[in-house]
Amino acid sequence: MNKSMKLVAVGAAFLFGTALVSDHAVHADTPRFDMVDVSNWNGYLSVNDFVNMRNQGVKAITTKISEGTWYQDPTAANNIANAQAAGLYVNGYYFAHATDNATAVQEANYASATAQADGLGVGAVLAVDAESSNQMAMGTAMQPVNATAEKQVGIAGGYRSTTYTMGSHIETTPDGDKSWIATIHTHQQQVKTTTHRSAVGNGSIMPRLMV
Length: 211
Hints:
Elements: E1 6-8, E2 35-38, H1 47-55, E3 60-67, E4 71-72, H2 76-85, E5 89-95, H3 101-118, E6 126-129, H4 133-138, H5 143-157, E7 163-166, E8 180-187, E9 189-197, E10 203-210
Parallel strand pairs: 2-3, 3-5, 5-6, 6-7, 7-8
Antiparallel strand pairs: 1-2, 1-10, 3-4, 8-9, 9-10
């Protein structure tokens, strides 16, 4: 497949419905590749595609659900069903554009309704992917907006949530949040890492592999 697929090693119990991983559970020098991030860019993936991922150590997927209040990823329902059939845990995310609380609520409602229609199970993670240029420019002022979005995801859909953003803009994630943070490292292959922030601002680094 020519399109890039992000293999996310979040490796955290947070993704699988149990307790949050502790900071010492995963280290940058011992990466785990546990979760694949898929979207319409990857097309309609089959059960066999996901079985192959599972056989290579993947435990979960996160699939793009929506964007703003106007776009629904057409591959989400297919990927959710097929990943579940392959025995993988399934999570989702939506690409947010909100820079104020009112819009954050609208986007969270839209994403939650879309996720439910696509078959994303209650209790899964539906992450707020906040990385637009307008959001990045707000810095710490984005924290309450992202917190509002996360809370509304739980109210509207019964999903757990977190903020998913870029490593260069960790200040936009709510304090104490177990956020997914992406940064890029170059060695042999293009690798991204996600960091779960703890209440004191540090966390475990979880690599994401671009394949």
